[in-house]
Design goal:
Blueprint lengths: L1 H32 L5 H56 L3 H13 L6 E5 L5 E4 L15 E5 L5 E5 L6 E10 L2 E11 H4 L1 H48 L13 H47 L7 H15 L4 H13 L9 H4 L7 H8 L1 H10 L8 H6 L20 H16 L10 H10 L7 H16 L11
Antiparallel strand pairs: 1-2, 1-6, 3-4, 4-5, 5-6
């Protein structure tokens, strides 16, 4: 194996010599023809460097594989010696032939210089025979080290730290006629046998270390050719993405990167022009969209003169809660639309139920409860409105799971639905109905506080009550949207 490694190292040095000549010629050619060179040539040069680096990595992998191979061979040899001793020691243990056991240990130790110790112990870990005589009769403690592997026959290999180098301790059980008579313990010092391998490994690492240094130098040179236009393009893309592009990008060469930069400048100018137009169209569409939503919400509320403007008031109260808990501007916009849509399912509720002057009977109440599911179905018809389905479907869920339609519990209820449920209940309690007058705000707030943790999420109730109290102390009325 050592001879093979030496041959490999010599071939590597020869390859390095040829590679150095190639680098010299390539660098000269690259310097002379940079501005007119094609991107393909530059990429080919970079690939050469990449291959060199890959070769270095492969050399490291090769050294590691050799390390593992030699290590496994050392351990296999130790296991083989241990099993040979255990096979021959069974009869001697039964006959208490300590001289025969000592002979087995002596032969194993003398024929293997990398074995610092060989011992035979009884089942109680007491040393019967040891290559180091003072250890005979001593009780050997269980070795504390990293378990390397354990075979099905009970052979155990552990890696133990040692001042002179790593030792692998191999324990082979002695079994005679299915009876455990003790164990053979062998120490294997890998440092001696790995010395030659380390020398060859160091040679390989030195050779490929030189290649890496050359690779770094060549990569730096290549980067000076490519990094400027690439950075320019990267910065241009970032500016274009954020809409801050001003001046056209500088063109450094006439190769493919130069043509790409020129095309990017033209595209950037076109996008900037279109961006301004699209921004205006977007604002117009958003305004039209919100207006349509408000009209739809007003149309729903208008079916019942007693709840006219209900959705708009729920939106105002919900937005107060949303701002207080730190929702973003985008989330607040979605929350407002969700509020305007929360009762859209009442479109399917018959007038005989929706406009009934008295209290609803059980059947009528069951039909009224269907409006949450009806609303979810209606919104599902438009994919762009799908994000408002959870708040529409679940704004009548209760925190304790006794709401409808799905009996969700606690934080399983979507945040928007939990916010809307509080605002919806407050507005419902303070609004007049044909069969009752609306409650005073203080009474409605006490009821909401009472239902905290039962119907409403406690944290949101606390936020809502704090907001209402703050506005009461400051004598500032809660803003209510005008009916659309």
């Amino acid at each position: 194996m050592i001879a093979n490694l030496r041959s490999f190292a010599l071939k590597t040095i020869s390859y390095l010599h040829a590679l150095l000549k190639f680098f010299q010629a390539a660098l000269l050619l690259m310097t002379q023809r940079y501005r007119s060179a094609t991107l393909r040539f530059k990429i080919a040069f970079f690939v050469v460097i990449l291959l060199t680096s890959t070769s270095f990595i492969l050399s490291i992998i090769t050294v590691q594989i050799m390390n593992n191979y030699i290590l496994n061979e050392i351990i296999k040899r130790g296991e083989s010696v241990g099993k040979s001793i255990s096979a021959a020691a069974g009869y001697s243990l039964l006959s208490r032939d300590l001289l025969g056991l000592d002979n087995l240990v002596f032969k194993a130790k003398s024929s293997n210089s990398d074995m610092p110790y060989v011992a035979i112990i009884d089942p109680d870990m007491k040393t019967l025979v040891h290559s180091n005589e003072p250890m005979i009769g001593e009780t050997i403690p269980v070795a504390q080290g990293r378990l390397y592997r354990e075979a099905a026959d009970g052979t155990i290999v552990k890696e133990l730290p040692n001042p002179s180098g790593t030792i692998f301790e191999i324990l082979c059980p002695i079994v005679f006629m299915k009876k455990s008579l003790g164990s053979v313990i062998i120490g294997m010092n890998r440092s001696v046998l790995l010395e030659a391998q380390r020398k060859v490994g160091n040679m390989i690492l030195i050779v490929f270390g030189i290649i890496v240094i050359l690779g770094i130098f060549a990569s730096s040179l290549l980067a000076s050719f490519l990094i400027k236009p690439i950075k320019e393009l990267s910065a241009g893309v970032e500016e274009l993405k954020h809409g801050t592009a001003k001046d056209p990008l500088r063109i450094y060469s006439q190769d493919e990167l130069g043509r790409l930069t020129r095309n990017f400048n033209e595209m950037s100018a076109l996008i900037a022009d279109q961006r301004g137009k699209l921004a205006k169209y977007t604002r117009d569409l958003e305004e039209a969209y919100v207006s349509i939503v408000k009209v739809v919400a007003a149309a729903i509320d208008a079916r019942d003169s007693y709840t006219h403007g209900h959705s708009a008031r729920v939106a105002q109260l919900s937005l107060l809660i949303g701002k207080q808990i730190g929702l973003s501007e985008v989330e607040l916009g979605d929350l407002e639309v969700a509020c305007l849509f929360h009762d859209v399912g009442k479109i399917k509720t018959p007038d005989s139920i929706l406009l009934k002057p008295g209290r609803l009977n059980q059947a009528e109440y069951q039909e009224m409860m269907q409006h949450a599911q009806y609303g979810a179905v209606i919104l599902s018809w438009a994919p762009s409105l799908a994000k408002y389905i959870p708040s529409t479907r679940h704004h009548h869920e209760w925190h304790n799971g006794k709401g409808y339609p799905d009996g969700l519990i606690g934080n399983d209820i979507p945040l928007f639905a939990a916010i809307i449920s509080i605002a919806d209940a407050f507005d419902a309690m303070t609004s007049d109905r044909p069969y009752r007058k609306g409650r005073f705000e203080e009474e409605a707030l006490r009821e909401i506080a009472r239902m905290s943790g039962t119907q409403f999420r406690p944290y949101l109730v606390g936020v809502f009550l704090e907001l209402m109290e703050k506005n009461r102390v400051q004598d500032t009325p809660i803003p209510v949207a005008e009916a659309v």
